[in-house]
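Problem 12. The chain below contains 215 residues. Write out its predicted structure in token notation.
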Amino acid sequence: MFQTISIVAFLVTIGALALNCIVSPCKECWRHPLRKLVQLFTLLFIEQKLSPAGVLRKLVYLLALLCFVVLAFTGFYPTIVLGKHISGYLVMVHATFAPVFAICLAVLAVMWARNCRFTGSDWPWFQRFVQRVTLTKSTGKEADRESSGLGQKTSFWLIIFLALPLALSIILSMFPIFGTHWQELLLEIHRYTAVLFFLVVIVYIYLMIRCKVNE
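Solution.
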């Protein structure tokens, strides 16, 4: 059941992102494909104009991305591709990168909380309603600029929110305070939360790349 649900969820998410590219394509990418491709690859490098705090944030982000890839492979390859439980060296690698990933998420949550906070301009429909009620006028430029990052903000906070049950479920299952039934339930919560977490991260990376490429 878990294998089927995971595969369907992955296919639906990838299909939705592909449909978004077709319905709302990036015009600049089609006009200058080579230049945009170079910009896409250079997103992984440290920009010289970044401050020390910006460099640290970028390094932590890249480390978190590396841990995410390792955890996704070691966690999903045996369960989804092979249809088996994770065991052996994969468990050791998974358990080694998991705490590092948790620390990186905690640091990113602190460093990016201000940039990812929700503002009134994130909801243009509500802003237009207020303007009609108060009979005020606005050019709408600021709202459009801020609302373009609404998807990134939402996916960012979903990642931080899902990280809590993802980590707590596996940590609590290691203690003998729960019976067999509760340990199995915690493992199931960890597995399905991991799938949802993976999908949200994929959406967040897609939105971030699309936003950066459009700049």
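Discussion. The longest helix spans residues 180-214. Students who got a different answer should revisit the alignment rule from Section 12.3.
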